[in-house]
């Protein structure tokens, strides 16, 4: 007897679940059960799972009966003539939606030609076995699965034109590519998804060859002239906002130029870009930490009477500033109100980004790399016809990754450029032979290789070099937003060690493995200096070995246990002192044995 579950709830038992499943599917196809029902038989647990709930991922498949697809040529003709709709095909059980669990009981053919008597369904299109982002990748069936995964992840990170009304929007951050291009080798999904209207990359002349070691380990050589012509150029937008709040007791924030007497006043130079109302004007250039909106806030948690008695100024500087490490031009200033009627000001800053050494660039085949060197055009290798590549990638990136799709795209892009048309790179629908023939007709070798000449020495490069057109994306990660270093700076309150993270002006962590390198070198002094960021001097009782008490009122230093005054100064890390304190909290007696003077 097998168990039956509906939406995860046990409802009963049945002796023949396979027959029951077949009869339920037959009823669904006769419209006696809702179309949203999915029935799956789990053999190893002898369970029948019936799903009706919302939130499931379901996909359409063509029903196969007796070895024949129900989506015949006659029906396709009717759909093309609009005599039949998609909904009609579902109502007539030609197409049905299957969820992940029911799919385990199906046998799906990729194409009509593959159908046998054992098949239960056939794909509407073989491309649909891939998700949206994976189906945007060219020639995916020629690459290894993990590369498609990487490629699909990076398509999402690419800089393009995601929305055309960017001048009306005030997103927190946004990246816009200045000269986006539609790819030469594109899939049918590119047009269907609207990416042909919102492209996110450039068609670049790519050469596969080493270049004096500067493109080692996935680094990419970039032609400086290509950068000057606009390769990868983008704008980065960041919107900053501040509000003038009202507080209890009638106090409120003030927007305007802060007075010099206000606590935290910066300097006159830092407020120089502000207008008479204390707000920066559009098209003003601002540096990192530059003031955008001048604001003073009341000191909170103090009543007015207390402030007068204590003789404190009631205001503190609380201006809106640009993030440290960023700069740009003020794009626009928006005045508004929030739901509580507080004045709201938004300032969008536009930063012009030109690719530099360290910026990330990736193809659609999971071949990512950073710019390793920007080379003047006259030093780049060139073909007999005078073509210089926009980028040079390392040929060692190909054999281990097995991205044959990228090689095919470079050849197809070249063939398409010469023939003046985009090439279809949809999964399972391309022929290498056709691409080679198209390229040969244009007067090139059918494998895309050419003789190149060294731009520095003028010598002929011995090997034939693959050069063609590949689609490359400039990714969101730019080195100027990640680059970070510090000397002295803020420390964490608890451990007194440097803070963590770029935004907090944090230090670069010198971890255990880095420590091992110094140990291996025998660099003891460097090791001691490196790990002394929280060095502190603690007074220890020589007899008890615990931290002494410094009574500043009585001017007396004594041990809390023996009340003795035999106390010595011990240098230690503050983090170690914190550990001692935490041990004491757990009633553990950590005794420090101090050396005698």
Q: How would you characterize this protein structure?
A:
With 597 residues, the chain is of the alpha+beta class. The mean pLDDT is 91. The chain contains 14 helices and 34 strands. It has a six-stranded mixed β-barrel. Strands 5, 6, 7, 8 and 9 form a five-stranded mixed beta sheet that branches. The chain has a five-stranded antiparallel beta sheet with strand order 10-14-22-21-16, with no helix packed on it. The radius of gyration is 34 Å and the shape is extended.
Write the layout of secondary structure elements.
Blueprint lengths: L1 E5 L2 E6 L2 H13 L8 E5 L4 E5 L6 E8 L2 E2 L3 H8 L5 H6 L3 E5 H4 L4 E2 L11 E2 L9 H4 L9 H13 L15 E5 L7 E2 L1 H5 L9 E7 L11 E4 H5 L5 E11 L9 E2 L29 E2 L4 E3 L1 E4 L5 H7 L4 E3 L2 E2 L6 E10 L5 E11 L6 E4 L4 E8 L6 E2 L7 E3 L10 H16 L3 E2 L7 H10 L7 E2 L1 E2 L11 E10 L37 H10 L2 H7 L4 E7 L7 E3 L4 E3 L8 E7 H12 L12
Parallel strand pairs: 1-4, 8-9, 11-27, 12-26, 13-24
Antiparallel strand pairs: 1-2, 3-4, 5-6, 5-7, 5-9, 10-14, 12-30, 13-26, 14-22, 15-18, 16-21, 17-20, 18-19, 21-22, 23-24, 23-30, 25-29, 28-30, 31-34, 32-33
Which class of the largest domain in CATH terms? Mainly Beta
Alpha-carbon Rg, integer: 34 Å
Here the CATH topology of the largest domain equals Dna-directed Rna Polymerase Ii 140kd Polypeptide, Chain: B, Domain 6
* Reported CATH architecture of the largest domain: Beta Barrel
Strand order of the biggest β-sheet = 12-26-13-24-23-30
Which structural class fits the helix and strand makeup?
alpha+beta
CATH homologous superfamily descriptor of the largest domain: DNA-directed RNA polymerase, subunit 2, domain 6
| Uncertain stretches | none
| Domains, number | 4
Q: What's the number of helices?
A: 14
Please tell me the overall pLDDT: 91
What is the strand tally?
34
Instruction: Tell me, briefly, the overall form.
Output: extended
Proportion of residues in helical segments: 10-25%
**How can the largest sheet be summarized?**
6 strands, mixed, barrel
Strand content: 25-35%
Distance between the termini: 85 Å
């Amino acid at each position: 007897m097998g168990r039956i579950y509906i939406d995860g709830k046990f409802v009963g038992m049945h002796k023949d679940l396979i027959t029951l499943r077949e009869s339920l599917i037959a009823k669904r196809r006769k419209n006696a059960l809702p179309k949203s029902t999915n029935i799956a038989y789990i053999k190893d647990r002898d369970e029948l799972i019936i799903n009706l709930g919302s939130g499931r991922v379901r996909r359409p498949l063509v029903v196969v009966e007796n070895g024949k697809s129900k989506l015949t040529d006659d029906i396709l003709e009717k759909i093309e003539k609009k005599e039949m709709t998609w909904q009609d095909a579902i109502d007539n059980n030609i197409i049905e939606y299957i969820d992940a669990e029911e799919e385990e009981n199906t046998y799906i053919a990729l194409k009509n030609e593959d159908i046998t008597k054992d098949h239960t369904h056939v794909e509407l299109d073989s491309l649909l076995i891939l998700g949206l982002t994976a189906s945007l990748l060219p020639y995916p069936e020629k690459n290894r699965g993990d590369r498609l995964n990487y490629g699909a992840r990076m398509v999402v990170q690419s800089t393009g034109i995601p929305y055309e009304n960017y001048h009306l929007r005030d997103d927190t951050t946004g990246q816009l590519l200045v000269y986006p291009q539609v790819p030469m080798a594109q899939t049918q999904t590119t047009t269907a998804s609207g990416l042909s209207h919102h492209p996110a990359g450039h068609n670049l002349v790519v050469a596969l060859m080493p270049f004096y070691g500067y493109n080692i380990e996935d680094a990419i050589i970039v032609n400086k002239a290509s950068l000057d012509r606009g390769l990868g150029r983008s704008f980065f937008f960041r919107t900053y906002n501040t509000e003038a709040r009202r507080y209890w007791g009638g106090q409120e924030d003030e927007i305007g130029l802060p007075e010099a007497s206000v606590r935290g006043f910066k300097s006159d130079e830092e407020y120089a870009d502000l207008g008479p109302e204390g707000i920066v004007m559009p098209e003003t250039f601002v540096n990192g930490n530059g003031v955008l909106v001048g604001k003073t806030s009341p000191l909170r948690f103090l009543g007015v009477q207390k402030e007068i008695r204590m003789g404190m100024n009631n205001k503190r500087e609380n201006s809106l500033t640009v993030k440290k490490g960023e700069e740009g031009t003020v794009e626009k200033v928006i005045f508004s109100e929030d739901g509580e009627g507080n004045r709201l000001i938004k300032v969008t800053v536009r930063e012009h980004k030109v690719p530099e050494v360290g910026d990330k660039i990736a193809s659609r085949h999971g071949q990512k790399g950073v710019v390793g060197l920007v080379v003047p055009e006259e030093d780049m290798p060139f073909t007999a016809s005078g073509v210089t590549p926009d980028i040079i990638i390392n040929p060692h990136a190909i054999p281990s990754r097995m991205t044959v799709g990228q090689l095919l795209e470079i050849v197809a892009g070249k063939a398409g450029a010469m023939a003046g048309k985009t090439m279809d790179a949809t999964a399972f629908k391309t022929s290498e032979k056709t691409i080679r023939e198209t390229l040969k007709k244009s007067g090139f070798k059918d494998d895309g290789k050419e003789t190149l000449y060294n731009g520095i020495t003028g010598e002929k490069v011995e090997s034939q070099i693959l050069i063609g057109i590949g689609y490359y994306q400039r990714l969101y990660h730019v080195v100027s937003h990640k680059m970070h270093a510090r000397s002295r700076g803020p420390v964490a309150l608890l451990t007194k060690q440097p803070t963590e993270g770029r935004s907090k002006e944090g230090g670069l962590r010198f971890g255990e493995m880095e420590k091992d390198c110094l140990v291996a070198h025998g660099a003891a002094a460097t090791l001691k200096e490196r790990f002394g960021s929280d060095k502190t001097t603690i007074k220890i009782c020589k007899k008890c070995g615990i931290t002494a008490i410094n009574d500043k009122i009585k001017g007396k230093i004594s041990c809390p246990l023996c009340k003795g005054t035999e106390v010595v100064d011990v240098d230690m890390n503050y983090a170690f002192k914190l550990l001692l304190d935490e041990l004491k909290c757990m009633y553990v007696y950590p005794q420090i044995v101090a050396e005698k003077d």
